[in-house]
Amino acid sequence: MEKILLHICCAVCLAYPLKYLREQEFEIIGFWYNPNIHPYQEYKLRLETLKNFSQAQNLQVIYDNDYDLEGFIRDIVYRENNRCPVCYYKRLRRTAETSKNLGYKKFSTTLLVSPYQNHELIKNIGYLLEKEFNLEFFYKDFRDGYREGINIAKEFNLYRQKYCGCIYSEKERFLKGGKK
User: Fold this and answer.
1) How far apart are CA 180 and CA 176, in angstroms?
2) DSSP symbol at 24
3) Is 78 inside a domain boundary?
4) DSSP characters for 123-137?
5) Does the residue 179 lie in any domain?
6) Cα–Cα dist 170/164, whole Å
7) Phi, psi (5° rounding) for residue 162?
8) Confidence (pLDDT) at 161
């Protein structure tokens, strides 16, 4: 059974990829690293939801609780309208580093399930890091299972967030005309 380190953005986005990868007989180790999530209460709520869901699913998760919000904001200052590449890179890079340090040959991310994320960009960053770390980025377009994942989330009564996580996406979601 091949091991894969799976970056987890939230429990809801984990639901379908976990099911799929288990069906493919991978040994999945989850990885939580999300310094982009704001405010901190939202971060804690998503983290607790993941802890409960992963326990119910008997999934081992490595929690990198380096909540470096200041570092995240510094990385995207003056790039607010092009922040997603920086955010994806930061989280996937930490996943690849952790995978390499633990001796796992494959890594991936639950970001690939969301129809709201830039799928091609995530894939390209994954392949870039694959070369840099001499690992395999496991690419799968999980979006075909998005609805199934939502149904699993409802079945487990998982907290479903209303925005991707960063302070800018929160503004865009809740402030009329927030996106420019």
Assistant:
1) 11
2) T
3) yes
4) HHHHHHHHHHHT-EE
5) no
6) 8
7) -105, 0
8) 86
